[in-house]
Amino acid sequence: MTTLQVRIAARREEADGIIGLELVSPDGSALPAFTAGAHIDVHLPGGMLRQYSLCNAPHEQHRYQIGVLRDAHSRGGSVAVHEVLKVGDLLTIGVPRNQFALVSAPHSLLLAGGIGVTPILCMAEALAACGASFEMHYCARSPARQAFRERIAASGFARRVVHHYDDGDVAQKLDLDALLSQADPATHLYVCGPAGFITHVVETARARGWPEAQVHFEYFGAAPVQADGNGSFEVRLASSGQVYRIPEDRTVIQVLCEHGVDVPVSCEQGICGTCLTRVLEGEPDHRDQYLTDEERAANDQFTPCCSRARSPLLVLDL
User: Fold this and answer.
1) How far apart are CA 20 and CA 65, in angstroms?
2) Which residue from 62, 72, 147, 300 could staple onto 14, CB 3.0 to 4.6 Å apart?
């Protein structure tokens, strides 16, 4: 995976519990281009690797901007950003990748929940820049917890953004049933935020007849997986015939890595799709949040960082 070094040029408290970082090339050169919805892998102190969506306008190549929420259930990444990183520090990052890209459509409906605003804001910047039709709804607990409020207010698309607060009066809260009351073939829906927020939006859209192809979403973290039913199984590599046993308390990626089998991996939560691997035989137990229901039903690929097996053996295209 291609990496590059960047320097933290600015650090700002964007809202209660949310830090914004501006990253630039150490020598001032242009950074690799990106498109709305893209994210970068960030190598953090302690060997941690985390993914953060880019939230600045995609036409900018002199900087990347990210926003990081301090998560009470953090595995260490958000704590490192909030407590360790400072202006002037050098970081290693991956080049931007996009699994949440905008689709050309007559109209786009953007829904952001909390820190999920980062890729959604980038989309709003891109759509506004090309004169496309869109509206954005931004949900937060309170104005104090809402990142990038000043930036949005000063933008040329401020009138297209509707703000909704949990602690506000009922009239200003998001009426999702009304917003998604009827599927429009001309509109594509994009949603990002906490898992519960995304699930509520996606399930409401499905119930109102929105086609899957018009509903796009991206999770920031995987939902907890119940591991009580984990069992051991085996994987066989098609290229060599080598068989490895996967114990109930280990992942496929962990076992393969220990034996020198190189599989690209990033999030290790089944979110990003980096480790997606073809399955030639056997039935996977899908535990990711990357594949669609149709892709899972095909059982011809899985994410070995978190998914397991329903059959005793999986034959992998490795």
Assistant:
1) 7
2) 147
Is 310 within 8 Å of 248 (Cβ atoms)? no
| Three-state DSSP class for residue 289 | coil
Measured CA to CA, the distance from residue 129 to residue 160 in angstroms comes to 13
* Closest residue by Cα to residue 212 from 294, 133, 140: 294
162: phi then psi, degrees, rounded to nearest 5: -110, 130
pLDDT of residue 25: 97
Question: What predicted TM-score, i.e. pTM, was given to this entire model?
Answer: 0.79
State how far the Cα of 14 lies from the Cα of 16, in Å rounded to an integer.
7
- Tokens 């050169």 — which residue? 29
Task: Tokens for 204, please give them.
Answer: 């409401």
Q: Which residues in 238-253 are b (16+ Cβ under 10 Å) and which e?
A: eeeeeebebeeeebbb
Q: What is the predicted pLDDT for the residue at 317?
A: 95
Read off the DSSP letter of residue 144: G
